[in-house]
Amino acid sequence: MGKVHERIDDRLRRFIEAQHVFFVATAPSGPDGHVNVSPKGVGGTFAVLDDHTVAYVDVTASGSETIAHIRENGRVTIMFCAFEGPPNIVRLHGRGRFVTLYDEGFDELLARFDGGVDESLGARAVVVVDVERVSDSCGYGVPFMSYEGERDLLPAYMARKGVDGRAEYRRLKNRTSIDGLPAFDMDAPAGG
């Protein structure tokens, strides 16, 4: 049976920080468009900022659905599952905003993370979620899986591209969502 919590307490924080992967879910407004669920897991790119605020480094990738949906309506859910140890699922529901590498304040936010991921390794934004609902549930249906290590492919790929190559990649692949919504704007501060 699930339980709703008033905040991200120390027990939930320890659970969240121990997970190697999390999932980000967003959707456009209205009855049309695609719901998006993105797995994330580059080490050191998630942080609990306080009892009601979390953030993660959004690394340049082939899509930009999360940014497009946050830009449109702000709704976001982040989910963590225990694949090792006692079963548990934690969901953080809230309103997201983002600061891109072209915005003021990006470097200060990026400094809050332990992962050492910066623009040279593909960091394109920091997504901040003001958490409105915290819940956990049993997780009995989640299988055991063992963590074997990080895949360093994406950061290494972005590092090889160089500054101009990363900017061109974002220009080609991240400007709109798969539904045609505006996503990663390289010309103006985002705010989200």
TrEMBL record:
<dbReference type="Pfam" id="PF01243">
    <property type="entry name" value="PNPOx_N"/>
</dbReference>
<protein>
    <submittedName>
        <fullName>Pyridoxamine 5'-phosphate oxidase</fullName>
    </submittedName>
</protein>
<dbReference type="InterPro" id="IPR012349">
    <property type="entry name" value="Split_barrel_FMN-bd"/>
</dbReference>
<dbReference type="InterPro" id="IPR011576">
    <property type="entry name" value="Pyridox_Oxase_N"/>
</dbReference>
<feature type="domain" description="Pyridoxamine 5'-phosphate oxidase N-terminal">
    <location>
        <begin position="8"/>
        <end position="137"/>
    </location>
</feature>
